[in-house]
Amino acid sequence: MEIKKNDLKIKCDIMGCKNLVNYSVSTSDNPRNNLNICESCLKELHKQFSKVVTPKSIKNIYQKGGLNEKNK
Ligand SMILES: [Zn+2]
After folding, report:
1. Average pLDDT in the 41-60 region?
2. 45 Cα–ligand 1 center, Å
């Protein structure tokens, strides 16, 4: 998955949003499947992601890394 800056003259894919697209989130090789969103929705999504992805899960990744080191 990749997020690219985009200035397509199409509307944001987020329901209820009437802004023009600023970014495309590519999820496959077919550009038709891209999620096209505006900057304001991208920022809002980022804000919501940071609520869901807590520092605790980052700690878990480090712990898993530690276990992998022991397994070598
Ligand atoms: Zn939007």
Report:
1. 80
2. 10
